[in-house]
Amino acid sequence: MNLPKQWRLKGQRYRLEGQRHSDGRVRFPAQPAKLGEPQDAWQPYQLANTGELFSWTAQRSNRSEFDHEPIVIVGIIKLADGCLITAQLTDCEPSELQIGMAVEAVTRSWGKVGEDDLLVYGYKFRPQLID
Amino acid sequence: MQQVFIAGTACTAVREHYDRSLLDLALEALRGAVGSFDPSLIEALYVGNALGDTLSEQSQLGAYIAGAAGLNCEAVRVEAAGASGALALRQGYLAIASGQADVVVVLGVEKATDKLDAAVQASLALGLDGELERAVGLTLTGGWALLMQRYLYQYQLPATALAPFAINAHANGAGNRNALYRFAINAQKWANAGQIAEPLNMLDCSTVADGAAAVVLVSERYAREVAQPIAIVGSASSSSTVALAQRPDLLWLEAAAASGTKALQQANIDRDAIDLIELSDPHGIAAALSLEALGYAERGQASQLAAEGVIAKDGALPLATAGGYKARGDVGGATGVYQVVELVAQLRGQAGANQVAKAKTALAQCLGGVGATAVTHILQVAEV
């Protein structure tokens, strides 16, 4: 993770900005048009911030940047608008998790960047507090 | 197109080779594969390697290794995460098939133990989507765990349903002197193993270790001079999206299915003609999804093949006869070349305690990342 990239990706990481196709399909994150597609086929779209847990894992062997955390829980979320997104799960224990449970997006720290240890933030998901 | 044959093969033992460098391992495998063949005939070297930049802090491995071997020829490193070696083999195959060369060498090499586990995990995770998966903390093992968790839910299976893949791999690894783990495990040990990335436990996760494997590929002109040449009758690769969440069907390895179909079509054989098989099997879920993608099992039912002994050494479709990722050891980007070295030994009747009877045709499929790259080769006993 580095600062210029975090700045460039602030829309997707702070606001869950994705894209919607004229036929109703939704995708994340925003991407250039695929070969053969009109350049304006996909328009900016803010994704739903609630959904259900599609899959999850609790990692106990982690990479250097996350090695200080004994467990990193990562899930795939199926958002209310049908889009899948991979995200860390927070405010929960592995024993609470079940596929199909309702979850909601929150903005949380993703870690520190650069020699000044600047905190960078982004989306995580937690069990939904209120239906 | 020219026919392509495998002449020489060799591999190092898979170990934590703390006293040996990447070059030491590469040169041992190259010397073994080239044997008494005249090195001046070698027209190209293709090196499959995934982790060299980060763990050995060395790029330009083609020239680096060719120089150490005394080869002054085209030298290329091929990278596609865990599929690097298989894709290097395909580049070698294409060089000969196209008529550009008559003799090339393909090397798979990985030196993982110069760094500690967290750094190895970071290097392996480069095969994931950097902005969407690695940035949120996912590891390569975690990626497969996400697939396994969904698989168990969707098909209403217990985690133990996938245990027979690791048990089979360890049973075979016990008979392979080059294997990292030469001991058997049983269902109870598997069930009691600690979690690594739930639901993947320690005995359902391969160990990344050091090793190198090499093969010499030749055209028909040179194959006539080789004892027991093995023909590559099918070679195909395909790709799908790297990010799991962007796949239309999380539990379908699209690239594995496409490359397998293409390779079988090229070989002009049905999948039932395959006598034994090597897959990317760092976890039981990877083997199960690959078997389903190749059409050997209906979706959600691959674990039955393992439970019923179909994948055992004396079964209808022996899998991982040298121990697979789990027992032979996970040699990262070198794996695709190891698979072929092991299958050639089977087809030549040189597999010792793990020999499969009457093996004539074999399939090797190797995946990169969580199946975003897939490379399939089909090998056959040749008559030249």
UniProtKB/TrEMBL annotation, chain A:
Q: Which residues form the ChsH2 C-terminal OB-fold domain?
A: 46-108
- InterPro entries found in the cross-reference section: ChsH2_C, NA-bd_OB-fold, Thioester_dehydratase-like
- One Pfam family of this protein, by short name? OB_ChsH2_C
The record's SUPFAM superfamilies line, in alphabetical order, gives: Nucleic acid-binding proteins (SSF50249)
Q: What protein am I looking at? A: ChsH2 C-terminal OB-fold domain-containing protein
Q: Which organism is it from?
A: Herpetosiphon geysericola
Automatic annotation (TrEMBL), chain B:
Q: Which UniProt keywords apply?
A: Transferase
* Record bears the keyword Protein transport: no
Q: Which InterPro entries does UniProt cross-reference here?
A: Thiolase (IPR002155), Thiolase-like (IPR016039), Thiolase_C_2 (IPR055140), Thiolase_N (IPR020616)
Q: Name one GO molecular function term.
A: acyltransferase activity, transferring groups other than amino-acyl groups
TM stretches of this protein: none
Q: Domain of life here? A: Bacteria
What are the residue boundaries of the Thiolase C-terminal domain, all occurrences included? 237-380
Pfam families given for it?
Answer: Thiolase_C_1, Thiolase_N
Describe the location of the Thiolase N-terminal domain by residue ranges: 9-220
Note whether Nucleotide-binding occurs among the keywords: no
Please identify the protein, giving its name as recorded: Acetyl-CoA acetyltransferase
Give the originating organism.
Herpetosiphon geysericola
